[in-house]
Amino acid sequence: MRYNVFGRTGHTVSALGFGAMNLPGVPFEQARDALNYALDRGITYIDTAAGYRNSEEIIGDSISHRRSEYFLATKTAQREYEKAKEEIDRSLKRMKTDYVDLLQIHYVNTVQEFQKAMGENGSYRAALEAQREGKVRFIGISGHRPDLLAKWIAPGQFDQVLFHLSLVQPFALDELIPVMNRLGMAKTAMKPLSGGFVQPVEKAFRYTYSQDVHTMISGMVSVDEVKENLAALEREVEAEEKRELESMAANLSAHNCRRCNYCSCPLEIPIPDMMISSVVRRELGLLPKGQAFYEKHKSKIVSCADYEPCREKPLCEEKCPYHLPMQRTIQETAATLA
Length: 338
Fold this sequence. Notes:
Largest sheet: 8 strands, parallel, barrel
InterPro entries: AKR, AKR2_Oxidoreductase, NAD(P)_OxRdtase_dom_sf, NADP_OxRdtase_dom
Strand content: 5-15%
Number of domains: 2
GO molecular function: oxidoreductase activity
Coiled coil: 223-250
Shape: globular
Protein name: Aldo/keto reductase
Domain NADP-dependent oxidoreductase: 16-199
Low-confidence stretches: none
Number of strands: 10
């Protein structure tokens, strides 16, 4: 296991972090065993959030007795001071700890959300207060707009950023990471498999592992998944392999979607998932989770071409800050499903 100094926090963290978002979906004993096995094998970064159902409780019940062995990161999606303050205290109680190493202002994707969180009665004030009280060591932010995150962190108010970085979403390398490096910030990459769409799994992990980040979090729910993730990172990525992986990323990111979720579809088609997986589906095929996604949404996708309100001007596209050809992508996919 490689270990990196986590930016200006000065703490050392494992290059592979344990993402606990999906633990509520498996039996407690399985989740407990996965967490403890991860710690036993040297994973020292645990990531969760108040909004991940009972993930925080699972962590508290499973590994709180080993608190000195891991760097604990959680998140609040509240934007108001009082609600965030309550949520922070609730998170500490759930995880059976007096402090978290990192509290992130969660899923900030619009200017309006950022301004509200950073306002006089916003959640950032609650985070600062908790930091003064010793409940929080460091403060970070997470989001899906690397270009906006780069602007928001410039004043130096955050210690860390959690961002997408994968074979299908390499955009943070150009839009965000250079700013973070200038500020000496802690860099956490998420979704190396982009929510279960990207394959081959080993190449996906090794791509993110090879990039300029301190730790990457992978959503693991079993001992076997921890083993698989660790096995993919047993050896360092050499220069030739890195060039190959970066060439793959340049091809697989041609969709250009950042998953900011500004778009919305009246037919309830999950457009970001479709955009991001479209090139992978065509070039490499999908993992079982990705195949199940297309089966689940097949009827909606096929009906896009006949949806009258979008015939002249697609409702989704006018909301996209990157002006992506969403309707064309959906209808091209529909032709392969019909």
